[in-house]
Design brief:
It is built from 9 helices and 14 strands. With 383 residues, the protein is of the alpha+beta class. Strand 10 and strand 11 form a beta hairpin.
């Protein structure tokens, strides 16, 4: 089963296609696929959901990505079935599923009893990408060169003299074109997309963005059907092949994250898009960067700007789940000036179970975009 299609289309967007606790359509028709026009709970769509009830379908899918990344597992490590045999995914054949359920309960109890209900202990806290947590300290890690690591969710306090969030964002706006960037009302871009592993072959991609908050990313695939992620300013959807649900609607923090991504496509929007913005410093690839972190609803957004150029180097969006946070990181490069506005022509988006590489061949600022581009996408179909 492919893991790449979860957010392949939304890479400018995170979670999973691994299904650990249960995944068969509640109708009992394994080959049938459903469309979700409104928020529904996981247990009302999938069979045999016992430890992760009471959460939306999109958050349920996100928890699978946390399991996958934390233990280094793929779907087949815990589930029976084939690439699209969703009915068998609900079967309790592997004892690992029972273990996963116990671990979910254990984490919840630890956080409740010792941390006042705050999410301090997660799957990744102990597993760190391994099936079994290590109990013996590693001498290689202790005395060797520490591996590169990323900051945890929250930025450290800003050192004295660090520019404010507003100052950093003002510099960025000037760096990408000043008044020309402020006047940017839409972007129509085309190029190629390449996924990770078996999804690594290039495919055409189209990106449509319209201020202040509409966006659509479509990866074309005539053999399997297109992957389309769309936000119309209020509602967001994912339509992708190789899923038990043809068209999934985003809700809660996932919707907040998609909304932030659409709004941040326009540099003049950033100050208004994020609440509680604060600044700090860091290094990316040995270059100093200035960071701005804020919130969009329940999504946490961190933007890293090159200290010298003021250009956006990295964008990280993070949303909560019952078993750990769901990060999505986008790294930007190859900035080019198009009609007075500097825009990235290359970026890589990485999430818990996939990586998407985008390279643009054409960009049209302030292009006319049909409103139908932001309508709810249809189910994926070969053509």
């Amino acid at each position: 089963m492919t893991r790449e299609w979860r957010h392949a289309g939304w890479a400018v967007a995170g979670t999973a296609s691994l299904w650990i606790t249960a995944v068969a359509l509640a109708s009992g028709q394994g080959a049938a696929r459903a469309e979700l026009p409104r928020e529904v709970l996981a247990e009302n769509v999938f069979k045999n959901v016992t430890a992760l009830g009471g959460i939306s379908v999109d958050e349920f899918m996100g928890t699978m990505g946390v399991f996958s990344a934390s233990l280094g597992f793929s779907c087949e490590d815990c589930h029976t079935g084939g690439s699209n045999n969703w009915a068998r995914y609900a079967e309790d054949v592997s004892p690992r599923k029972q273990t996963a359920r116990r671990m979910v309960g254990m984490m919840a109890e630890i956080n409740k009893q010792y941390f006042g209900g705050r999410q301090v202990v997660t799957c990744f806290s102990c597993h760190r990408g391994a099936n079994r947590p290590k109990v013996t300290p590693s001498l290689t890690l202790l005395y060797g060169t520490p591996p590169p690591d990323e900051l945890d969710v929250l930025l450290p306090p800003a050192p004295p003299g660090t520019p404010s969030a507003a100052q950093i964002l003002d510099k960025h706006l000037q760096a990408v074109g000043g008044a020309r960037a402020t006047g940017l009302t839409s972007v129509l871009a085309k190029g190629t997309y390449a996924g990770y592993g078996p999804e690594g072959f290039p495919r055409p991609v189209e990106i449509y963005a319209k201020a202040p908050n509409q966006k659509a990313v479509v990866v074309r695939d005539s053999a399997s059907g297109d992957n389309a992620t769309v936000f119309d300013g209020q509602t967001g959807w994912l339509s992708a092949p190789f899923k038990p649900i043809d068209v999934m609607e985003f809700h809660g923090a996932e919707l907040d994250s998609v909304r932030a991504d659409a709004e941040l496509a326009f540099p003049a929007n950033v100050k208004q898009a994020l609440a509680n913005a604060r600044s700090s410093t860091d290094f990316i690839n040995d270059r100093p960067v200035l960071a701005v972190q804020g919130t969009k609803g329940n999504a946490l957004v961190t933007m890293y700007f090159d200290e010298e150029t003021g250009l956006l180097t990295r964008l990280v969006r993070s949303t909560p789940s019952v078993v750990g946070r769901l990060p999505i990181r986008t790294d930007y490069s190859d900035y080019r000036e198009v009609e007075g506005v500097k825009l990235p022509f290359k970026w890589t988006t990485t999430w818990l179970d996939g990586r998407s590489n985008f390279e643009l061949s054409s960009v049209q600022p302030n292009a006319a975009i049909d409103a139908a581009r932001f309508a709810r996408p249809g189910p994926p179909k070969p053509y």
